Amino acid sequence: MMRTGQNAFTLIELMIAVAIVGILASIVYPSYQSYITKSKEAAAQAALVSFASAMSQYYMEDMSYKGAAGTQASPTDTGTPWIFSDQVPLDSGTKTYDLTIDSATDATFKLKATPVDSSWRTFCIDEQGIKDDCNGTNNWD
Known about the structure:
- The protein is of the alpha+beta class.
- The chain is built from 1 helix and 7 strands; from the N terminus they run H-E-E-E-E-E-E-E.
- The protein has one domain.
- A 5-stranded antiparallel beta sheet has the order 3-4-5-6-7, with helices on one face. A two-stranded antiparallel sheet has the order 1-2.
- The mean pLDDT is 92.
C-alpha cells in the first residue's frame, strides 16, 4: 500500500505557533513579575505589623522599647531584632526583606523592612501604627 498524503505540520505552521506563544509570553511575563512583587511587598507589610505587635508586647514587659535588638544576652537599641524574626518570610524561606529596628527609645520605635531587590519598596511602621516609606510618605496600599 502506498501513502498518498502526509500527516505532519509544515515549517510555516510551526513558526506561526512559536510566534504566537512568544507574543503571549511577552504579554503575560510582566504581569506575572508585578504579581510576584506585590505579593512579596504584602508579606513584608504583614510581617512589619506583626513585628510592631511583638514590640508592644516587649514594651509591656520592660516598660521600654530599648534593648529589643542585638541578642537577649547583649541587647542593643537598633539593628537586627532578637524578639522577632529578622527576615521575610518569617519561616526562614528564601529571604526577600530584612527586618530591623531603625530607632528605639523608652517610648517610641520605628521598624523597617528593607528589600533584598532594590526595585521593591521599603516600608516602615512606628509605635503609633503610622506606616510609611521611612521618609514620611505613605506608600502602603
